[in-house]
Amino acid sequence: MKSAQILKQKIQGNTLTTGLLATFHLWPGLVEMAMDAGLDYLIVDLEHVTFGDELVIQCCSLGRLMNFPVLIRPPNTNADTVRLLMDKGPCGMLLPSIHTVEMLNTVQEGVYMPPRGRRRPGGHGNKWVKDVNYATWKREVEDDLIMLPQIETQQGVKNAEAIAAHPLTTAIAIGPYDLSADIGCCWEPQNSTLLGSIEKIREAGRKAGKNMWMIGDGPTLVQRGFTFLCITEAAMFLQASLTNLVKQVKGGGTATTAATPDKPLP
Fold first, then answer.
1. pLDDT value at position 37?
2. What does residue 259 show for φ and ψ, rounded to 5 degrees?
């Protein structure tokens, strides 16, 4: 899939890559807006809310037609859940709360066809490929899928090297808010234990020769040397922008960020 190829090249080349998370609201026009704004990808977040199947399919299809990467964050990483979401046509997934290699093996069962997995493709996902031979599926879909295992627990931090080295992993990823809660410092973004855990995950990615996906304030993350970023959630950005506009109009100053330390991105 060309959109996956484009995103993978940016990730692996350490090109500054920025994306948008859609948690609270989703509509096809958001895909176009993200692309027009110069973002590099969009993630449809199904972990915390449920969007209708047709809507998710439309957004994935639009991304595919425009060669703009649209990924999905599933509600869980069970093989059947992943398999059904793959049928909707994303170019990859942000995998929530991965803390063992065995969990990635389960995901692999859902995203790969036999003999590497047990996926049974169907639905709109069949429109990805020129024909339905296995060699075509592997070449045009499986080989370029973007898979981002999100470490959000202390157990995941302990297993970060193995998770990063797994062949399914495109880049290592993190859920900093949930990780802070698991550590016991929810939400203390400057907590030394949290920062140390983030660096352990980042180092695990480096050791495996893979980039690290990080979510948060874009300029701050760039200063810290991250290149694969999710810089905002759409509804939170709208709220922050409206707050900023009202303050400007009323002469009360400005609000400069869409996700402050006391209201982190989901």
1. 97
2. -150, 95
Predicted TM-score (pTM) of the model is 0.94
Residue 257 domain-assigned (yes or no): no
What is the per-residue burial (b if ≥16 Cβ within 10 Å, else e) of 187-201?
Answer: eebeeeebeebbeeb
Residue 263 lies in a domain: no
Q: Do the domain assignments include residue 256?
A: no
Residues 81-122 pLDDT 10s: 999 999 999 999 999 999 999 999 999 999 999 999 999 998
Cα–Cα distance for residue pair 176/178, rounded to 1 Å: 6
> What sign does the dihedral 86-89-91-94 (CA atoms) show?
negative
Quote the CA–CA distance of 10 and 14 in Å, as a whole number: 6
Asked whether the CA dihedral 106, 100, 92, 14 is positive or negative, the reply is negative
In a domain, 259, yes or no: no
Question: How many domains are contained in the chain?
Answer: 1
The residue whose two tokens read 């879909």 is 141
As given in the structure block, the two tokens for residue 188 are 């203390």
Residues 166-210: tens digit of each pLDDT: 999 999 999 999 999 999 999 999 999 999 999 999 999 999 999
Residue 71: strand, helix, or coil: strand
The whole-angstrom separation of Cα 38 and Cα 127 is 27
pLDDT class for 159, splitting at 50, 70, 90? very high
On whether the CB atoms of residues 27 and 239 are closer than 8 A, the answer is no
Tell me the residue range of the domain where 202 lies. 2-250
CATH number (domain holding residue 111): 3.20.20.60
What's the farthest any 2 CA atoms get from each other in the chain? 64
pLDDT digits (tens, 9 = 90+) for 42-74: 999 999 999 999 999 999 999 999 999 999 999
